User: What shape does this take?
Amino acid sequence: MRMAIAMLLAFAGVVAPVRASDADADFATFLSRWREAVATNDAEAVASLTQVPFLFESEPRDRQTVARTVVPALLTADVRRCLRTATPLREDDRYVLSCAPYLFYLGRVDGQWRWVEFAADGEA
Assistant: This one.
């Protein structure tokens, strides 16, 4: 459902794909680092770029648990491959990447970009 809404908003011009000229330098740097960590399946690096506590399976998870449990559960080989090129869509003050079966939300926390949450993609 969220993906359908995001697509409708994109067509309406409310949510826009990020182009290099639109992205602020901080986000572009963060996204590059996050994608590299994801692509190489570096769970520790992904965890270091994640806002903790991170809610997973209805429980707040610390950095170590994100690396040990969350990363392997959510970032499967297919999802990692998709995240390499998924187009970030602006959603209010954050960005969302869609890689079935999940949506990945990236936002600022205390001035720093972080992976802040995920959601199941109802369209997947």
In short: The chain has one domain: 2-120.
